[in-house]
Design goal:
The complex is a heterodimer of chains A (about 300) and B (about 600). By secondary structure, chain A is an alpha+beta fold. Chain A is built from eight helices and 13 strands. In chain A, strands 2-1-4-3 form a four-stranded mixed beta sheet, with helices on one face. Chain A is globular, with a radius of gyration of 22 Å. In chain B, the strands form six sheets. Chain B has a five-stranded mixed beta sheet with strand order 12-11-15-13-14. A four-stranded mixed beta sheet of chain B has the order 2-1-3-4, covered by helices on one side. A four-stranded parallel beta sheet of chain B has the order 9-8-7-10, sandwiched between helices. Chain B is globular and about 90 Å long. The N and C termini of chain B lie far apart (about 65 Å). The chains are: A alpha+beta (about 300), B alpha/beta (about 600). At the A-B interface, helix 2 of A face helix 17, helix 18 and helix 19 of B.
């Protein structure tokens, strides 16, 4: 096997050629923080939180996209690295609403985790972002642009896994935002509610509407289940609170195919004790319908139980 | 037949050179001189400030700022009677002498125009004009050599990328040549977007075939069958001339299938960019050609291995390609004899700002800044004091007077905290506030950041906020340290060249003009008297005769006083518009 040997934090390791520094460090149980990286998605290198010091290099390369090279000497927590990470977190917090007290994502938020890890309590910078409306137009997903850190995971999840490409980057400079086509709302878009974007979002920018108010992450006992409704085998969480299944949440994006609404709804119907009433999109907007109709089982039901 | 050359570059066209051409043709017709004189449009001469420019050949008389109504005088006095029209000649800003011919003007005399040799002298819309000056002979020579040999010639010539960072061109070609892959591409970066720079535009407008020839030679050397010219849509004239040149090159067999009867085939395409500065960054440029959002991606893999559609791709900028035919024609040894040990050849600069002669200048590498600014540029406007020169655009830095004797080459500029960049040279006099200069360039980069990586998108925005506060007199202790800390992190962690170099204007001004920052923060004073919010208008009671002119005309109602008694200005109401200063006859109003 062609491989390269390198040193990370004084530990030697040999990895196959093409392995990134991030993956090599993981083998040594060295956790490098990442916000925009997801091994199921294409490499992006945008958040720069995973920068590390490589001896002999002037810049701090991003570990998630830098291949390990023979003889590399990597430091993952050097003073320069920690300064850079702290600054990046502070910069992200400058435009981030610090409402962790009521944020649905609290306890399950990567930004929060890393602020804790690097002791960032407040930001020395003043935010400048204009107020943006909360996008509540989609029946399954809440989009809060203020909490978006532009890591682009949702964009890649939407484009690479689903092939739907509903989300994309728009504008530039400090005005950059992630938007549905033509900067409309998720409700008006071609979103199929697969929740891949929600599953990968590291902050509270994209949230599952069905989970709203049902509890905080640490109150749930998540159980991983595989959806049995087709051969693709998407992975979901059953969220239990006090022994009762309160919701079904998307576990993570399955490559090549969306986690379909049907699987999600059907799991909810099977497992939740009090499943919320489903809605479908009609020409007039979203309408609450019966489970039979939402699952497209009317014809079948009509045959089985003729009126 | 004698030739009359009328510049048809963007600058001269904007000052009505097309109308001058039309009027000249009409006048020649009226005076029955049509068979003696031929009027030809050329590309940019580089002396745009003096445009529209007209040259009469063969005597090389240069007429400046020629308007339609001057045409009659040129025809009757010069063409018919042989007396040059003196009032249209160039006047030396230093000696005030009138100078008749092109080559006697300091601005041109001290340049070494090799790449720009054809610009302003041949009709860029006519391939025969290019062929008449040995055009496409470089390509012919290259096609007779093995590919490796062509790459070797470029390596021996020592050509380095003129796009800014100065990577050795031959080495880049070699990487692309050796990269595995059947389909390879050549790409020309014509996305010049630096404020105040127009080198590439002038080459494209004035000598488009040279760029095509350079690209075709590169395509042959690396084994590419296809190429793209990514040109700014804001350069419509350059796009138009490129289209004409490309069509002519195809027609004559210099481009397309079986070039010059050989086995080598390569077609070139033009892609218009939509005006994003970041698309000058090579990976963003490639994304843009592919129809994606122009965002850079991490390197490696470098485009030489995985570029356009994942195939090996060679990217050079316009000026680099324009150097290539010269090297093939005149030899690597000749080329390497120009310039310095590590920076070979010549470099084109766009000389602008507070300098007497502004325009495009081509000089050998290693020439000093002083020679460019004071000899070619004729010195500082209004003979004010030189303060700094901003070199390399938003990625570069400001160098003070103590660096005037610095030889201009890649490495010495980088060591001094600036960079070659694409070659913008903005000269600043003592009325320029260096904090404001840093703010200006940062304002540009923050607006042009693609927004992908955090340090660039958020960090530059915060640096700009601090600088803006300082220029408004709201600077705080610790601001400079915070600027330096942010600059360090942004430079160290940003994804692409745009972000990594964005803090340079701030760092270089902090390095050379730190006292000016401190004056703004601690004393709320702008030493250059340029930051409006820090100016205070006062009336000298001894000089004021109470004429009431200023009081009546002050738009903010900030001036009070009785007639024939000294007036006063209420600084809280004063809008610092300067109206009173201009109005005051006894010069009693002063600014601090």
């Amino acid at each position: 096997m062609p491989g390269v040997s390198l040193t990370i934090n004084d530990q030697k390791i040999r990895v196959p050629a093409g392995t990134t520094i991030l993956e090599a460090a993981k083998e040594l149980n060295i956790a490098i923080p990442t916000l925009c990286h997801d091994k199921r998605l294409s490499p992006f290198g945008a958040c720069r939180l995973c920068v590390v010091e490589v001896q002999g290099r002037k810049n701090l390369p991003a570990a998630c996209v830098t291949p390990a090279e023979e003889g590399m000497n990597v430091l993952t927590e050097s003073p320069a690295v920690v300064e850079a990470r702290r600054t990046i977190i502070e910069l992200l917090l400058a435009n981030h609403p610090l409402d962790c007290l009521t944020c649905e994502k609290s306890g399950n938020c990567r930004l929060q985790d890393y602020a804790y890890r690097y002791g960032v309590k407040k930001t020395p910078f003043e935010g400048t972002r204009d107020p943006l409306p909360l996008d509540d137009s989609n029946p399954f997903i809440i989009r809060d642009p203020h909490k978006c850190i532009l890591c682009g995971k949702c964009v890649r999840a939407c484009q690479e896994i689903r092939g739907q490409a509903v989300l994309g980057f728009a504008f530039r400079g400090p005005a950059t935002r992630i938007v549905p086509p033509l900067d409309t709302s998720l409700g008006e878009s071609d979103c199929v509610f697969c929740q891949n974007c929600v599953a990968v979002c590291p902050t509270g920018a994209l949230r599952d509407k069905y989970l709203a108010g049902k509890g905080r992450w640490w109150e749930f006992q998540p159980e991983s289940v595989t959806c049995p409704f087709c051969a693709n085998g998407c992975h979901f969480y059953l969220l239990r609170k006090g022994g009762k299944v309160v919701a079904v949440a998307a576990g993570g994006a399955a490559p090549g195919r969306p986690m379909c609404l049907r699987g999600r709804l059907a799991l909810t119907l099977i497992f939740c004790e009090e499943p919320p009433q489903p809605q479908i999109k009609t020409e007039k907007g979203f309408a609450a319908v019966s489970w039979t109709e939402a699952l497209g089982l009317e014809e079948l039901a009509g045959k089985l139980w003729p009126k | 037949m004698r030739r009359i050359l009328v510049c048809a570059g963007t600058g001269c066209v904007a000052s009505h050179s097309r109308q001058v051409t039309a009027r000249l043709k009409a006048a020649l017709h009226a005076h029955h001189l049509e068979d003696k004189f031929q009027v030809d449009n050329t590309g940019c001469h580089g002396f745009c400030e003096q445009g529209p420019l007209v040259i009469i050949e063969p005597e090389e008389i240069l007429y400046c700022r020629v308007q339609e109504e001057d045409v009659e005088a040129i025809v009757t006095e010069h063409l018919e009677q042989g007396r040059p029209v003196e009032r249209l000649l160039y006047q030396d800003p230093v000696t005030k002498e009138k100078i008749a011919t092109y080559n006697q003007i300091n601005f041109y005399r001290q340049q070494s125009r090799h790449v720009l040799k054809n610009c302003g002298h041949i009709n860029p819309e006519n391939i025969d004009a290019y062929l008449a000056v040995e055009g496409y002979q470089g390509l012919q020579k290259a096609l007779a050599l093995p590919r490796e040999e062509v790459i070797n010639i470029i390596k021996q010539a020592g050509l380095r990328g003129r796009g800014g960072a100065g990577f050795p061109t031959g080495l880049k070609w070699e990487y692309t040549f050796k990269a595995p892959g059947d389909r390879k591409y050549v790409v020309c970066n014509a996305d010049e977007g630096d404020p105040g720079a127009f080198m590439d535009r002038s080459v494209l407008e004035g000598d488009p075939h040279a760029v095509l020839e350079g690209m075709l030679i590169a395509a042959y050397a690396i084994g590419a069958q296809e190429g793209y010219i990514y040109v700014r849509a804001e350069y419509p004239l350059a796009v138009q001339r490129l289209r004409i040149a490309l069509a002519q090159a195809r027609e004559r067999g210099f481009c397309g299938e079986h070039i010059l009867g050989t086995d080598f085939s390569c077609d070139l395409h033009i892609r218009e960019g939509a005006g994003a500065f970041v698309c000058g960054e090579e990976t963003a440029l490639l994304a843009s050609i592919q129809g994606e959002r122009g965002m850079p991606r991490p390197r490696p893999p470098f485009p030489a291995r995985q570029g356009l559609w994942g195939q090996p791709t060679n990217i050079n900028n316009v000026e680099t390609y324009a150097n290539v035919p010269l090297i093939l024609r005149r030899g690597a040894g000749w080329y390497a004899s120009l310039g310095t040990a590590k920076s070979k050849g010549t470099k084109i600069f766009a000389l602008t700002g507070k300098v007497k002669n502004t325009g495009l200048v081509e000089v050998p590498m290693g020439i000093t800044l002083r020679e460019i600014i004071f000899n070619i540029g004729g010195g500082i406007l209004e003979d004010r004091g030189f303060k700094a020169v901003q070199i390399g655009g938003p990625s570069g830095g400001c160098l003070p007077a103590e660096h005037l004797d610095l030889p201009v080459d890649y490495d010495s500029l980088t060591a001094a905290g600036a960079m070659m960049g694409s070659g913008g040279l903005v000269v600043m006099d003592d009325s320029t506030c260096m904090v404001e200069v840093a703010r200006f360039f940062l304002n540009f980069t923050q607006a042009e950041s693609c927004g992908k990586c955090t340090p660039c998108r958020e960090g530059i925005q915060q640096m700009l906020a601090i600088l803006t506060r300082i220029t408004r007199g709201q600077g705080r202790e610790g601001d400079l340290e915070q600027l330096e800390q942010l600059a360090r992190v942004i430079k160290g962690t940003a994804l692409c060249g745009l972000g990594q170099t964005a803090p340079n204007p701030v760092l270089s001004t902090l390095r050379y003009f730190r006292a000016e920052y401190e004056a703004h923060i601690r004393d709320h004073r702008c030493p250059a008297k340029s930051c409006r919010d820090l100016l205070a208008y006062h009336i000298d009671p001894e000089k004021c005769n109470g004429c009431t002119r200023c009081r009546r005309r002050c738009p903010a109602g900030a001036i009070s006083g009785e007639a024939k008694k000294p007036h006063t200005i209420n600084l809280e109401l004063c809008a610092r518009c300067g109206t009173c200063l201009d109005l005051c006859r006894p010069k009693a109003i002063y600014v601090e």
